[in-house]
Amino acid sequence: MPGPCRCRRGGASAGVSRLIPDMNAYQKEQIDALNMVWRYFDSQGASRLAELRAAITGYLAFRQRVAAFLETHFKTICTKKCYQSRQSACCSKDGIITFFADVAINALISSQPEMKLLSDAIAHPYQADKCIFLSKNGCTWRLKPVVCEFFLCDMAEQQVFPVKPEAQSQWEALNAEKKTYTWPDQPVLFEMIEKEFIMHGYRSPLMYLHNSPGLIRIRRARNESS
Ligand code: SF4
Q: Which parts of the chain have pLDDT scores under 70?
């Protein structure tokens, strides 16, 4: 389980890179989100931060179970096909979707040096054709975005699931469980986190549950039927 939040050490934005003029729009929105989260946590008292940490406990336990599943069923194949060959299909992607809640949750469980590493990676991408969160030592998120955690390439799935149908069922169950945190057909953690920041005057393009027309429609339908 990740260690206690140490975000407040060092003051607001102490560990986060400032905007650099030649950043592209994607880099800017990521740095902006980091700065927002950092500022907000720095403005909150210890008791509110403790409440927020308590609110994400179930999600962190879920992510540990997902990580254990991937370790059991995919570690060997992913290490060989992706990491050793340096051809990770996932991490080669430019502009992966990060939810605002991904940023906030990661910040809640990260130390200041970890946040600095992440923001430095964004501001100064290690390799132009790779994900901006990648450093020479790997992904700089302490808890990688949920989209990344649930990415399995076709080849990996085809090698594992036909010979382990029980693993496929488990994976489908984990995907369904993921929606209970991210999919707003019911009040979910990712929405609650966005709301927390919106209520305090913050807005970010990464707040997809409040920005994406499709997700807004789902929230409206839920509210109308309740
Ligand atoms: S955020 Fe991390 S895990 Fe996701 S694509 Fe980038 S480097 Fe890979």
A: 1-21, 80-81, 83-90, 92-94
